[in-house]
Amino acid sequence: MCDTVGDERTLPSWELAIDTLLQKNLITHRRQLDELRIWQGSDFNVDGE
């Protein structure tokens, strides 16, 4: 994920945001598919955000 394709300057901020969401259990990382996912039924309001 990045703001601009090829712009690695924003990578640290995205990694921090992802790590924070993972620590709060708002998203999960599925290793077998190498994807981040918000599961249906979670407490996170996607539409509200």
Order of helices and strands: HEE
The number of helices is: 1
Strand content bin? 5-15%
- State the end-to-end CA separation: 18 Å
Structural class given helices, strands, pairing? alpha+beta
Shape: globular
Number of strands: 2
Largest sheet properties:
2 strands, antiparallel
Order of strands, widest sheet? 1-2
Question: Percent of residues in helical segments?
Answer: 25-40%
Rg to the nearest angstrom? 12 Å
- What are the low-pLDDT stretches, counting only 5+ consecutive residues below 50? none
Mean pLDDT rating: 81
What's this entry about, in short?
By secondary structure, the chain is α+β, with helices and mostly antiparallel strands. It is built from 1 helix and 2 strands; from the N terminus they run αββ.
Structure explained in plain terms:
The chain has 49 residues and is α+β, with helices and mostly antiparallel strands. 27% of the residues lie in helices and 12% in strands. It is built from one helix and two strands, in the order αββ. It has a two-stranded antiparallel ribbon. It is globular and about 35 Å long. The two termini are 18 Å apart.
